[in-house]
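Supplementary notes for students who missed Thursday's class. We covered one full example, reproduced here. Read the sequence, then the structure, then the short commentary at the end.
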Amino acid sequence: MWRASVGQDYLDQIRRIIGILGSPSTEDMAFIENDQARKYIKSLPRRNKQSWSSLYAKANPVALDLLSKMLVFNPQKRYTVQQLSLIHICRCRRLLTCRSRWSPYH
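Structure (token representation):
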């Protein structure tokens, strides 16, 4: 289970998050106002993003897609609750439409 939110301290927590999400780009760090924090993150070893499916091999692909939209380093690139709910509603409607086409009672 991914436990990036549990670290020994705030620096360990950042290392864990970057270990999963990968090293942020300069653009993705633009929201960080503290120069020391940006320097610290840049000083960390370069990390590649891990795939959610490698961390949660048995998870539903829809859940993994939602994780990829919610857990993003740059808060300006994260999906909002409204965006996520619209995606969920659209997926549910498509699923219901597909099921009704194949239903023997249709």
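Commentary. Residues 58 and 67 are 14 Å apart (CA to CA). The radius of gyration is 18 Å. If anything here is unclear, bring it to office hours.
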